[in-house]
Design brief:
The structure holds two protein chains of two kinds. Chain A is an alpha/beta fold. Chain A is about 40% helix and about 15% strand. Chain A has helices at about 25-40, 70-80, 100-110, 125-130, 140-160, 200-210, 220-235, 260-275, 275-290, 320-335, 340-350, 355-370, 390-400, 415, and strands spanning about 1-5, 45, 55, 60, 85-90, 115-120, 170-175, 180, 195-200, 215, 245-255, 315, 350-355, 375-380. In chain A, the strands form three sheets. An eight-stranded parallel β-barrel of chain A has the order 1-2-5-6-9-10-11-14, surrounded by six helices. By secondary structure, chain B is α/β, with parallel strands linked by helices. Chain B is globular, with a radius of gyration of 20 Å. Classes of the chains: A alpha/beta, B alpha/beta.
Chain lengths: ~425, ~350
């Protein structure tokens, strides 16, 4: 089993109102969580990225955590306070250039002695593009062709020094990039930093199968996890890759208690904190695309239909057709007699592992043994102590079961993940 | 400038490329033992070596007081990314970040990106100025007290304390606000090598620290006066500008004499860029120039970092400290405090924010 830790940052699972919640930006918070992950022998520590603050109804979103540091810079600092933990940065391939980013990633791999990873994301969003020279002109179709060529170009740069340390000139001529020169960084300790991909569309799955070492997915239930797992692993063969060369790791939340009942009770409290009355209306407006501020979060769902063409929310990924989602929410609400807030609580949680440490350890193991995942990216809800209980109480049980390592066996992130160093293609 | 004005000292820790963090950590800690204001690490897309900002970020937790100033170029980079990365270096170092602004003028650098042709230096320095400008606007785009965590209303931040910068430059535009909250220093310290003409204008307008090359104290003083006059013309208080004489130093193997076979006594190359002599001679030169009001301090580039930085710290700096010309400890925690520069007021805050 592979385990990674997500810094509980800008997302609606972070509970900032808890008295134990500390700074979302001070380095001490990042250090605390990374050290906890390393104490737990985790594979890697994962940072998300934001390139524009979200907006709601034309105004900056103010209900969730807002603001975060730049990933690669924080991870370079974390390399100084950790020894083995992998360090994964989400960096957008749409608003960066291959030469500069390949150099920054190779630098992190050297500075961490082989622990760097890059989570490749893309954007088709002109809203985000307003912060960049090039703007946001890429459409959905082009973003994956650019990302695929971007990763391939980065690999050409990483391979442009011979393994014995001689730089050789490179030339790349492609659809999106035409560059040439000499890379300034020797082949890094891992050969290539680990490439992670997140994204669930058919193009995203194909991109993962062709180019990624790890997939970060949201398919966290046993059944959808198994379907996704089988689909993505089946795509590997046509790229000449074995199933073990791509690790599938859903992002999941967890809540622990001394007993299962206590954990369930605690989880319900956490969901109430995550879906405050204000956040409930906001979630509803994201589906409906309308101003619903006059509705009572403890009352029923609105009987008006969503506006499918709305751009009420900017900078956030939309999930599904709003009319279909609204119909599903209405049906659920009527069937169970749920208020707006209760409906949002029921529908917006991601896969959670809730229970005593023993229960959670057993369920995580079940997922891996059933081929629903190779491991998990854990998303704690508290900064920075949200991983402490998991490391102290669940990890020893996983180790006892023999499904998770008791010590790191190698120095690099590739060795933790059981991935071979890429063959040099000079 | 009164003779008692504090002396500022900085050192470059680059040199032949190295890829192990331990090498740089050792140099930065050495400079910190000498209580130097800051270390710089030069960078270019066309020169072998690691990304300088990443290296100095790696050093931040391994050091406690010394300022960390990477070169970050502005020609082929995104201003939004640059400002985020520099602000983050300030967060991870708890207020010790700077940014040495530089441009990429060569065709070779342009071909690494394939996005725009090489351009004349004056045009690129104007753009570098815009990059520095939008950087400081983005750093201000969060007021210091924007994070409110108001449980009653469910608001993590007060959106009225976040600001769009709506910057329109000649070659880029940025809407804002920043993703990174306002850094500990308000603005990390902006450094510009103002030796060349087009760079000097950008330096006078945007830099906190300007590096200049000079062959004689009179020349350095004249450049300093010129920079202060230009800064004032841009509406700045000239006393918020620190002008450091940049010297590449070769301290040889003796206390006062240069390498065997050379004439005795310190030598200053004709372009003022290269100093050769012993650590004591260097301390004498710094004392003489500083007392004469030629500069606010010196930025020293050891020609062989491992050897020369050790001689700078244990020889030159120790002697300056003995003469009470240079501090023996850090009275403050941030790079701005080392430099005697105030934390900038926030241009978007109603009363200038927390100063």
């Amino acid at each position: 089993m592979h385990l990674a830790a997500h810094f509980p940052g800008v997302n609606n699972t972070t509970v900032w109102a808890d008295p134990r919640s500390r700074s979302q930006i001070d380095f001490s918070s990042f250090e605390h969580l990374a050290r906890a992950a390393e104490r737990g022998k985790f594979d890697f520590f994962f940072l998300a990225e934001g390139l524009r603050l979200r907006e709601h109804n034309g105004r900056i979103h103010d209900l969730d955590v807002v603001g975060r540091p730049e990933s690669l810079t924080v991870l370079a600092a974390l390399a100084a306070v950790t020894d083995r933990l992998g360090l994964a940065a989400t960096v957008n391939a749409t608003f960066n250039e291959p030469y500069e980013l390949a150099r920054r990633l190779a630098s992190l791999d050297h500075l961490s002695e082989g622990r760097a990873a890059w989570n490749v994301v893309t954007s088709f969003d002109a809203f985000t593009g307003e912060n960049f020279r090039r703007g946001g002109y890429l459409d959905r179709a082009d973003r994956y062709t650019r990302a695929t060529e971007f990763v391939a170009t980065a690999r050409e740069l990483w391979d442009s020094w011979t393994p014995d340390g001689t730089p050789r000139p490179f030339t790349h001529r492609g659809q999106h990039f035409a560059i040439e020169g000499e890379f300034t960084v020797p082949r890094s300790p891992q050969g290539h930093p680990v490439v992670i991909q997140a994204g669930d569309s058919p193009e995203g799955r194909e991109f993962a199968a062709s180019a990624a070492d790890v997939v970060f997915t949201r398919h966290g239930t046993l059944e959808s996890g198994r379907t996704f797992y089988a689909d993505v692993k089946a795509r590997l063969a046509k790229y000449g890759r074995a199933p073990g060369e791509l690790k599938i790791m859903p992002g999941v939340t967890f809540v622990l208690g001394d007993s299962d009942a206590e954990a369930q009770e605690r989880a319900a409290e956490i969901r109430l904190q995550q879906v405050s009355p204000q956040n409930a209306l906001l979630a509803l407006e994201q589906i409906w695309g309308r101003d619903l501020s006059s509705y009572d979060p403890d009352g029923p769902l609105p009987d008006i239909d969503p506006d499918p063409g709305s751009s009420l929310v900017q900078g956030r990924v939309k999930h599904g057709d709003p009319l279909a989602v609204a119909a599903r929410w209405r049906a659920l609400s009527e069937e169970k007699g749920l208020s707006i807030r209760q409906t949002v609580i029921e529908t917006t949680g991601r896969q959670s592992f809730i229970g005593s440490p023993r229960t959670v350890a057993a369920r995580l193991t079940e997922f891996v043994e059933a081929d629903a995942a190779d491991g998990f990216i854990l998303v704690p809800h508290l900064t920075p102590g949200g991983l402490d209980d998991f490391v102290d109480r669940v990890v020893p049980l996983l180790q006892e079961r023999g499904v998770f390592r008791s010590e790191y066996t190698g120095p690099t992130l590739r060795s933790h993940l059981g991935l071979a160093e890429p063959v040099w293609k000079g | 400038m009164p003779a008692t004005a504090p002396l500022h000292l900085a050192a470059e820790i680059g040199g032949p490329p190295r890829y192990d963090p331990g090498h740089y950590t050792g140099l930065a800690r050495l400079a910190e033992r000498g209580a130097l204001d800051f270390v710089t690490l030069g960078d270019s897309f066309a020169r072998p070596g690691l990304d300088a900002l990443a290296v100095l970020s790696r050093l931040a937790p391994a050091t406690a007081r010394i300022g960390l100033v990477p070169t970050v170029t502005t020609t082929h980079t995104e201003p939004f990314h640059v400002s985020s990365a520099v602000a983050t270096l300030d967060w991870v170092s708890r207020g010790r970040a700077g940014w040495n602004v530089d441009v990429s003028t060569t065709g070779a650098e342009a071909r690494l990106f394939g996005r725009r042709p090489a351009a004349p230096a004056d045009e690129l320095w104007r753009e570098a100025g815009e990059s520095a400008d939008v950087g400081s606007r983005l750093w201000d785009s969060w007021e210091d007290d924007a994070e409110i965590r108001d449980v009653a209303t469910g608001r993590f931040i007060d959106r009225d304390k976040l600001h769009y910068v709506d910057f329109e430059g000649a070659s880029f535009s940025v809407r804002g606000p920043a993703i990174v909250p306002r850094p500990p220093q308000g603005h990390p310290v902006t450094v510009v090598d103002g030796t060349s003409g087009p760079a000097r204008e950008t330096a006078a307008r945007h830099a906190d620290v300007v590096l200049v090359r000079a062959t004689a104290p009179e020349q350095a003083a004249a450049v300093r006066t010129d920079l202060r006059r230009r800064a004032a013309a841009y509406g700045r208080d000239p006393d918020t500008l620190r002008v450091l004489v940049a010297l590449t130093v070769d301290l040889g193997d003796a206390e006062t004499a240069p390498e065997p076979g050379l004439e005795s006594g310190p030598l200053l190359a004709a372009d003022g860029s290269h100093y050769r002599g012993g650590p004591v001679d260097l301390a004498d030169l710094i004392t003489r120039w500083h007392r004469g009001g030629a500069a606010d301090g010196f930025h020293l580039t050891p020609i062989t970092p491992g050897r020369d930085l050790e001689r700078i710290v244990n020889g030159t700096v120790a002697l300056l400290q003995h003469r009470s010309l240079f501090r023996t400890f850090y009275p403050g925690g941030t790079l701005r405090e080392h430099l005697g520069l105030a934390r900038p007021a926030n241009r978007y805050a109603p009363e200038g924010g927390r100063a």
